[in-house]
Amino acid sequence: MGIVIKNALAVLPQGAEDVIKETSIYIEKDRIAAVGDAPEGFVADKVIDGKDKLVIPGLINCHTHSYMSFMRNVADDLSFMDWLFGTIDPIEQQMTDEDTYWGAKLAIIEMMKSGTTCFNDMQMNIRQTTRAVKESGMRAVICRGLVGSGNDEAGQTRLRQAYEERDAAKDCDRLTFRLGPHAPYTCDEEFLQIVAAEAKREHMGIHVHLSESVSEIEQIQEKYGCTPIALAERSGIFDVPAIAAHCVQVTDEDIDILVRKGVSVVTNPASNMKLGNGFAPIGKMLEKGVNVCLGTDGAASNNCLNMFHELSLLTLIHKGTGRTPQCVSAREGFRIATINGARALGLEQEIGSIEAGKKADLAILDLNTPSLTPRNNLLAGLSYSANGSEVDTVIINGQITMEHRRILTMDEQLVYRKIQGIIERMGLDKKQYS
Q1: What does pTM read for this prediction?
Q2: Listed residue (249, 149, 139, 146) closest to 198, CA to CA
């Protein structure tokens, strides 16, 4: 199918910067065929009027747990370990396969409606999540969450499941896979070494939680005599392309390890603040050359999956904590939410910017909105005033998945009804007025 977005403003790469220009974007099948002039022989099956529109590369949510979407607003104002082991883990123990499926669908609707076209998910039930991704038209990187102790059977079973579920999804080019050792406090050093060796053997990347809380730092220091990041390095976790979520409580030596090993750091400011874990030293990481990308974490700890909300926090809080208004500029923040995320996922040749030859993963924003009026500096507006409701149309892999705010690939009302049934069955609805 040929699609042309005619005469729209668009965020386009220009060297190490992004600029906004009026242009037309031509899409053939799943890719951007041209930006500017129509390619020879191009036939438009659909013309999208770009008047009063801004086209951006789809946002990339580099760390989330999509199945948690039905857990939003049920575990609030708790310390990290109480939140995780006192509330969330017991809920997870009640989950069925269908709960994972409908939770993922709700998450995808929320992300799509706020301009996200790709997400990096740590999951317990890959097959149900890939089912939701396939049906929705979304792009995703799926990581089987792994916990284990040494060469125990439970850890080996999870690894086998990861491979089985990866192989079962080979028919969908919007899906790629990584291994997801959960964290150093749920995976001992021997198991981390096993996962690292498996990732090398299978040519897979790794997605792991690291240095999220003070309690984690204290626990790992007491057990292993080092920081979680140093433990990950000596376990071999960083010997393959690695994404480390959070990295809030880090030392200068930790940052040097991340730089030396080429580890991408996913910052999740809303979740880190809400759980009282603090603020990652993003300014220092950027200065040292860490590839920083952006994620929401799960809805159980955020409590939303809106990347515009996260982008606003990213570009504001570090100005305050660093006491400098130049820390994480709006332009830098937008790149962190797009091309840096693509780079972290190993997909920078495919997504993350609007360029001929790349996958057609785009969000089209309506500029006739209060938040983006006047149009003084739209790149600044994306960080400081946009809230996600401006997203009018979404294209993923050349397919229009949302048009004029209506999801075309899923039955929204059915998803909402299914989610309501889940929370009633688990008794989570009783918390709504507490």
Answers
A1: 0.96
A2: 146
- How confident is the prediction for the chain on average, in pLDDT? 95
Inform me whether the pLDDT recorded for 28 exceeds 60: yes
- Under 8 Å between Cβ of 327 and 315: no
Is residue 413 assigned to a domain? no
Structural domains in the chain (count):
2
Q: Report how far Cα 127 is from the mean position of its chain's Cα atoms.
A: 19
Mark whether 63 and 50 lie in a shared domain: no
Residue 166 in tokens = 């990866």
> Taking residues 74-98, what's their average pLDDT?
86
In this predicted structure, what is the pLDDT of residue 434? 43
Angle 153-168/189-202 helices, nearest 10 degrees?
30
Amino acid at 182: H
Full domain range(s) for residue 167:
59-344
Give the CATH number, domain containing residue 95: 3.20.20.140
Domain match, 292 and 184 both: yes
SS3 103: helix
Q: Please tell me the distance from the alpha carbon of residue 86 to that of residue 74, in angstroms, as a whole number.
A: 12
Q: Is residue 412 part of a domain?
A: no
